[in-house]
Amino acid sequence: MESIRKKVAALRAEAEAAQDRSEELERSLKDESARAEAAEAEVSSLQRRLQLLDEELERAQERYQVAADKLADIEKAADESERARKVLENRGLSDDDRILDLERLVNESRSMAEEADHKFEEVARKLVVTEAELERAEERAEVAEAKGSDLEEELKIVATNLKSLEVSEEKASEREFNYEEKIKQLE
């Protein structure tokens, strides 16, 4: 019996040791369960956070795509505006050149018109003088002819007057010829 008692005591000691180990394992299991729950909660939290970050990333990518599209449109519009600006600058430069040429032509035309006006006035004055001299010469010729037919006795005087008239008429013709030449030259 003693051996049974020893065995029972040994079994009790083993049972107590097993119970202690069991309690210790239960505590360890509770700690591990608590840690596992905390880890699961943390994993769940991280999964939610990851999901939120994914959604935020998608929204950011959408905003980026919208901004990139807008930027591309703005760049196209800027390129078109730049091309239009260059076209207008070139057109403005050519218009400026044309304006300068036209202004130069206007100034040249004005000076030519002023010269032509001066020449015309000079020729008109000379023409008036020549016409007046012609009228006087014609009047003198008429007077001389009337006297010639009326006064045959003063034929010699008239002849000399006629000669002097012819000389003056030649001079007048020469002057008239010269004036006509000058008028042609002036024209």
From TrEMBL:
Basic and acidic residues compositional bias, start-end: 13-38
Tagged with keyword Coiled coil: yes
Domain of life according to the entry: Eukaryota
Disordered, as annotated region: 12-41
Signal peptide: none
Keywords noted in UniProt: Coiled coil
Coiled-coil ranges per UniProt: 120-154
Family: Belongs to the tropomyosin family.
PANTHER family per the UniProt record, alphabetical: TROPOMYOSIN
Protein name: Tropomyosin 2
Phylogenetic classification of the source organism: Eukaryota, Metazoa, Hemichordata, Enteropneusta, Harrimaniidae
